[in-house]
Amino acid sequence: MSSTDMASFQIDPEDRRDFFTILSRFSSGPSSPVRLFRHPDNVFAVYGPDAEMVAVEFYQNSSFARTVNIPADDEDGRDDSLQYINIGPQRVEKFLGMVTCDKKRAVVLYAQSGKEWAARKELGSGDHGSIDEFLFLDAEETSEQSSLVFALSFQAINQGLVVGVAAFDPVMQEFAVCQFADDHRYSCLESIIVEHSPKECIVDNSKPAEDQNLVKLFESRSIPFSLVNKNLFSTASLEHDLKRLLSGNIQQYLVDLEKTVAMKALAGLLHNVGASANDALNGRCSLVPLELHEFMKPLDSNASRALNLFPSISDPNTDSSLFGVLNKCKTASGTRLLHQWIRQPLMSISAINDRLDLVEAFSKDSHLNSTFRDSFLKKVPDLTKLSMKFQTGRATLADCVQLYQFTVHLPLGLSVLGDIFDLHQDDITPLFSTKIIVPLQQINGDFNQFNQLIEKTVDFEAIDRHEFIVRADFAAELMSMKKNKDVILSQIDELANKMDEELSMSGKLKLNYKDGLGYHLRVTRKEEKALRGHRKVICLETRKDGVRFTTTELKALNASYNEISSHYNKFQNTVVEKCLSVVASYCPLIDHCGRILSKVDVLSSFAFVANHSNGYVRPVLLAPGSRTLRLKASRHPCLELQPHVESYVSNDVEMDADRRFQIITGPNMGGKSTYLRQIALIVIMAQIGSFVPCDSATVTVCDRILSRIGAGDSQLRGISTFYAEMLEASSMLRLASKNSLIIIDELGRGTSTSEGFGLAWAISDYICHRLQCLSLFATHFHELTELSFSCSAVVNRHVTAHTSDNHITMLYEVVDGACDRSFGIHVAEIAQFPPEVIQMAREKIIELESVNSANERENDRLFFAELKKLPIDSMSDDDLLRACSSMLDVA
């Protein structure tokens, strides 16, 4: 693409006023997302006030932001102006990193469909791990998820509401429905929207537009929504429409038809997507349940960052994130699938065990697995992108050749898979066979005709010359032009040999071909002096690898060759178009093969990690509700790989329904946070089907992992660190169920000690008695360990440290029992505080402890003095207990 194209305004003149109107509806400011528009030829653009920000912050030059005039839409109107800046495809990844990580702003990608612009994808603030996935999704390469259209209907019940959801997938020609009870924060609705990523939501206007919780839900996910007259959600003609649209007898859909709120949503969906008037859909659609619980509920962005699920742009170390540790994938589609799996851990034990069975199969023979990965998977192209190019008419003959090279390579992969399969004749034969071997064998056979077509059509000898052309013997006209090209190529070879003799190069002169230069001659920089002053030499360019030059005669031969090649290409275009249309019919087969191989790639990557680690084991999965977590010698999957860690200290975890709440105390830097994080990561690894870093592991499937880790504020939103803590804790208590896992790393630090402790105690008590889920709480409130006296499910544990002569050595071992002292002064000494500061701190501690002791003694004296005044002999036990409680409250 030329620099002129990159600087030009990408919107056609007749569409500029409408586009300007669309932009004017968007909010702008430092807290709003940056809206990135993808135009044809992969030109990205930012419009409005953010264009100047991009110019100054990214390009470091304000003049890069240009201004275009927007003509008025009538003679009396005023013209407007619009700032814009274009970003080339080679720079967009760096731009996204700057915006999300440096500027802490989200990015929404917009793509055009016809005349309309729609949000296709959002990249959250700091979410650098999703950039590859974000860039992969463009206007023409929209995933199946983004093709979904949702319609929502609501019905109030008691203090809550019932939500009906209907979805339509135009690719699969499938309707899906569900309904569920939800709260007024739309917690369940948010989960299903995150899980299915609709491109648009249609809402019946019985739900007021001022419902800020609903509006915030859509805005936070950058999902366009529209309020539609509730009359259009009438089910009066729904059954008639479904009889016409659905395949099979409508009686088979009775279970779904009884979901009255969902049916209202479906009626509105049929009307708004035009399905009720589209005869092309008659008898071709299906109606299925919209699944809600296939995956673990998604972690929020704070939890994802705290657990280091995905790499940070500021940390080049790939082993610092779970994605980096597990991503040994050899294919682009495998890498994308792994990213999706980490975001969506499974809930189904059978599905998880299917993955684990295949990982175990690949891990049994590490040599065979490595052979399969290096000799086959490494050479697999991005089949998803290839298929999309054929579907959208953007493919070339070169893409056909790339696909052909894969299909002829497929039998090698099948052969190695067969060797792996033979190792498991008695173990997982049906699974390995039905999931991998048999489908790939069928695909390999189905590609036979494709291979014959390419072999009959493509000139493979020309590929060595970087030409992708039709075979000359395909038609007489092509054969004639091919002979003429061969004659010219022979003359070019003779000319090269002649120049080699004239320049006395003794075979050192090379004949090369390069796009833009054509056929030319090249000598090394060392031999360049032989060219000086030679009358025939016309220098083209000088580079590190040598000097490229031509001659008048060679230029003439090049021109003749290019002319014949042009005629050849024009004639073959018709043949190529027919070939591409035939290859496009193989797209379902390419997609199927891509899905299988991407899964195989991820699973073989899991096996590779397990074989090349310090010891990974297959986890045993228990059904939700079992509330058992038993890990022997567990380790943090990322931390143990860091170069500064010589010997990682493993720890056991033993939790069940009777020991479900662990309180972990101990010194700073002692390993409390690491202990919490490694448990959460091991649960995630188990539920995506990976082996885990333990000697043994029994894991109950969790429906959600909720975390309160780290301290952060949001100055732009006026949220302090403490308020952010409270918001996270409130959300955690609201969303958790008995089948969740909660991890809390410190709580209540941003307020007074007494208030902080009170909140920590109350939240812990609520989790213990009300939620009753598996929970771990790392804290410096040692008094919190007394919660074990009021709840038998509380287990106190602490991280160990050795102290001597005012020195502290961290042992990083988590053992039973509460920590009986604090180590803040020791940590301050390690941080090399000035000695006078350390001494003053020690004196203050002694002073405060003496004051507290004096207060306690005075309270005891007052209590016993009042107790002596009571007529104990005449009081009942209940009266005496109430009187003592009252005096204790006063004391």
TrEMBL record:
Superkingdom field: Eukaryota
The organism of origin for this protein: Spongospora subterranea
Family: Belongs to the DNA mismatch repair MutS family.
Listed Pfam families: MutS_II (PF05188), MutS_III (PF05192), MutS_IV (PF05190), MutS_V (PF00488)
GO MF annotation list: ATP binding; ATP-dependent DNA damage sensor activity; mismatched DNA binding
GO annotation (BP), single: mismatch repair
Localization: Nucleus
Domain DNA mismatch repair proteins mutS family: 740-756
Origin organism lineage: Eukaryota, Sar, Rhizaria, Endomyxa, Phytomyxea
Protein's UniProt keywords contain Nucleotide-binding: yes
Cellular component terms per the entry's GO annotation: MutSalpha complex
Keyword DNA-binding appears in the UniProt entry: yes
Coiled coil: none
Name used for this protein in its record: DNA mismatch repair proteins mutS family domain-containing protein
Assigned keywords, A-Z: ATP-binding, DNA damage, DNA repair, DNA-binding, Nucleotide-binding, Nucleus
Xref: NCBIfam families: PRK05399.1
